[in-house]
Structures are given as structure tokens and as C-alpha cells.
Design brief:
Multidrug efflux transporter AcrB transmembrane fold; 4-stranded antiparallel sheet; 8% strand
Length: 664
Amino acid sequence: MLVLLGSLAVAALALLLPSATPAEPRSSTGLSTSAESARVEQLRESLPKADESAALIVFSRDGGGRLSEQDQAAVRQLAQSLRRLAPGGAIPQPQLSENGQVALVILPLPAADETGTERQVDDLRQKVREQSPPGVEAQVTGPPAFGTDLTRVFDGADVRLLVVTAGVVALLLLLTYRSPGLVLVPLIVVALTEQVTTALSEQALAALGLPGGGQVTGITSVLVFGATTDYALLLIARYREQLRGTDDALAALRTAVRRVAEPVLASGGTVIGALGVLLLASTETLRGIAVSCIIGIALAICAGLLVLPAGLAIFGRGIFWPFVPRVGDTARDGKVWGRLGGIVARRPVLILAASAVLLAGCAAGTFGVRTGLAQNEQFRVEPESVQGAKVLAAAFPAGTTEPVVVLGPPNAAAGITQVATAVEGVASVRPGARTADLARYDVVLTSEPGSAASFETVRQLRTKLDAVGSEVLVGGGAAESLDLQSADRRDQLLIIPLVLLLVGAVLVAVLRSLLAPILLLLTVVASFFASFGLSWLIFDHVLGFPALDGSVVLLSFLFLVALGVDYNIFLSTRAREEAATHGTREGMRTALAVTGGVITSAGLLLAAVFAVLGVLPLITLTQVGVIVCVGVLLDTLLVRTVVVPALAFLLGDRFWWPARLRSR
């Protein structure tokens, strides 16, 4: 009771903390100034009107077709009416596309914070709709509109994510235990853990100077819900098992907590360690996810080993009503898994070969993977800014929405303009603001920002402008996306091997073996590639996603490997415990029988919880959710329940090499 009251007091204090002021990102990509685009973003703050931005107003006929003279006159009149919104009251003349179907008005907007920019975009959209000529559709796009729409699509998303996730957890707990008490008590603990995580993460991120946001909150919430519920399922399963052997419910609970403490601490520690490696990532978003999720997993461990046991102790054996376990009851939940273990034990080689073929077939889908989402491809449901950008790209150079920014010395103006104009893929070069030491040039590309063609153009610009002078820098939208892609590849090459080394070291420490950790690690990697390939087939042929976001590979690998090791640890530690008495083959059969149900329940629940990320509006989050969902299902239903037991049955006591288990 004291533990429960203390936990509630700590939770109340955390939830009552005043809201922290969110940290400002160092750059729009979250990259440090070692990236050229981030240096450009920093330097251009010294230029006049650096805080100003420009909204692009796109006019087109509803069903296509040319804009009439009356339409064009109305657009010019509307543009004049918007002059009072621009700094200094000056805006460029409207531009008409070559085919006469689209008109463009560029409206400079005064400097404002995020809330002020949203208000400016909303007011502008309302005015434009009210004054547009009949039959003409007006859409506001450009960087301010993109930022507003990105923020707006997350409005209410946190509540929606929490409600859907809680509903999924409640449903699966009810199907697993068919007990109201075992739905309500764990769900309260899990939901409270998630809310405390959110409150503490907000404070920690602000203190560390890391920005938060919808991506950080969404991924953290799902991970905390999944991990805490997994630990709860493991504890409850062991508690129910102990209740069949003793009348003392409190003693049974103590034994259950003691027996699950090692796998829970090992699995949670592995996830925390893997997230710690993520702190080496290049972007602030990934580091923010790491910090927030580390706090969440630490609290999930405390909830699983302290808070939930305290809650279960209050209700005693009755928490399982109406299916209360009695002393001497026969375990029924392990029969299916026991029979499966017998089948695998009789044909381990055949089953291993069939499983390998299946996993290889799924992994074959990785050969067609495309990476790199353009700016217009990041939303699952297109907001107005994306729709307007597509209309604009069809009539004007595609890079009009967000030009590349070139900074250089004013005395190199002629050379910069001449070299940049000659680069293939450049539509135009416009001089911008300047000081005595620095000049800006807006370079409009013919390709869409974030596309492969725009990346190649940026590379050519940087290479050729280096000849003009080393102080000439290339930044802006397409360059930022290119630098972010390079950072993602660097992170993958650094972090993925470190995570594998960390996971392998944890498995060696927990299992006190060398061969078993190597084999288990190989199964986790095979599961990742299979889930990645199968998920890409879903993205490409079912959901119609154009490509994978660059950060998806690293995040999905991290979660799949770290969470997949959870089930390895749950199964293998129990198998080792039983093998000390009955030998490896019989020990694995027993471990599969008693943990197969809880591992499957935990895996199905975790997969469903990550699938809930699909309710959020960004393709990136949907992709992470689907890959982890598919991977956890493969890991739970095939790798952990078939492949790993088959390896143990095939190798026998050699599975634990170089350790030697002496049967008692």
C-alpha cells in the first residue's frame, strides 16, 4: 500500500509541474552547423528582413482551363488589396504561367512566432477565399503555409492517439484474461505511466535544449503503452502460475516479481541502452525521441515491478475473477504451445529450413525500396499547402515553392549568378538581401524540393560554386533535405552496429553463453529484414507511398531489435532456468509451453499498439508503425515460437556453449 501511495504521490507531482517552455531547434532540420545548410540558415539571420517569409497564393480554374482576362484582373485587384499585409506595403506583380492556367501572387509576411504565423496564414486564406473570382480556386502554400499545416494536422492528435491506444490495450487485455480487474488495474497503471512520461519528458527536453513535437510525443506514447503492458502481461502470467501452487497470494506475488525481475530489467535495460546509442544521432528530433523514450522505459520498469504488484496485492487472488486460479489447478494456457514444441522438436531441421525460406522471401522485398520523401509527399492526407504546391509545380518550375538559398560575398555576385544559372536543373537565379559582407541569391530549381533530381542539382551547385570561392554556401529547402539524408545514412552506419553490439553484450550477460546470444541476435536481424521487405510491399502496392522517409530505417531497426530482444530474453531465461533441471530440449519445451501464451499476447498487443501510429497524419509515423507491427508479429508468431526453439532442439546443451548445464 505504501508503494502504491508513494507512486501516486510522485505521479501527481509530475503531472502538476508547470509547463516547460519548448526549446527552439537549432535549425529547421535539427542538424548542427557542421551541415552546410544549417550554416546558411544561421548566416542569413544577419541579412535584412531575415525573419520575413513569403506566402505563395496560387489561383487556378476549378476544372482546369485558362484564366480569363476578368479572372486575371480580379487577381491583380486582390493582390493590391493584400498590400497592407506585406512589410512596407510592397508586393511583386502577379505572375501568369505560360499556359495561362495558373496565376501566382507572392506575398511577403512580417516576422512572427509560430502562433503569429499560423494566425497570418489563416487570415490570409480567409481573405483570399472571400475575394477570389467565381469559379477560381485559390490556395495558399509556401514555407509559412507548410509549417502551419504541419502544426495543424497534429491538433488533437495526442488525445486521439491516447484514446485509440488505451482502447486497443483494454480490448486485448480483456481477450487475454477475460477479467474486468485485469483490464482496469493494468490499464490505469499503463495510462498513468504514459502521462507521467509525457510530463517529465517535456521538462527534460526543455532542460537539454531539445525540441519536442508530435513525432516525439507519438512514438514515446506508443512505446510506453506497449512496453508497460508487456511487463504487466509477463508479471500477471507468472503470478497466475504461482497461485496454482500456494494458498498465500502475497507469497505468490513476491515469487512472481522475483522471477520476472531479471528478464524485465534485462529487456528494459537493453531498450534503454539502445535508445542511449540513439543520442549519437545527428538530428535533434532523434535525440529528443531517445531522451523521451528512455524516461518512458525507465518508468515502465518501475510500473511493472513496483506499482502494478502493489495494485495486484490489494485485490489478491480475486483480481482474476471470474476465472480465479486455485491451488492444484491444471494450467490450460500452455497446451497449444506444448504441442507446438513437440512438433518442432520432432522436425527441427525441416522447420528451420522452411522458416528460413519464408523469412528470405519476405526480406526479398527490400530490393525495391525507395528512400527520400519530397516535401509534398510527407502527409497522408494532403493539406492546402501541398495541393497548392502541386498546382504550382505543374505550371511553374517545381522549386518555386521553396528556392535554394546561396550565400556569398557581394563582390562575387557576377560569378555566382553565372555559375548557378549554368547548372542543369536551375530555372532562375534572383538576387536577394545583402549587407557589406554577405549577399543572398534565391535559386529556383526545375525539380521538386526533396526529390532525387533536386539533390543532384544541389550537389552540382555546391561543387561548381566552390570554384567561385570556399565562402559560397548552398542551403534552403532542397539542400536541407540532402544534408538530412546524408546525416541519416551516417547515423545508420554508426548506430546500427553499436546497437547490435550492445544487444549481444546484454544477451551474453543474461544467458552466460556465447553461442545462444549469437544465434538469437541473428534471428532478430533476420526478423528485421523480413519485416522491412514485407512492409515495403505493403507501402508500395497497397498504401501507395512514394518512398520511405530517411529516419524510418533507423527508428524501425532500433525498436524492432530492442523490443525483439525482450521476447528472446523472456523465452531464453525461462528455458535456461528449466534446462538446469530437465536438460535443454525438455527445458525449451517447458519454457515454450509456459511463456508461449504470454509472449504471443504481448507481441500481438505491441504490434497493435504500434499500428495505432497510423492514426497520426505523417507518412513517417505510419511507416514506423507498420514496420514495427509487422516485425513484432513475425518475431512473435514465427521467430520466437518456432525458429529459436528449433535451434535449441537441434543443438541441445550445445545451445548454451561454452557454459555447461548440469541437470539436477
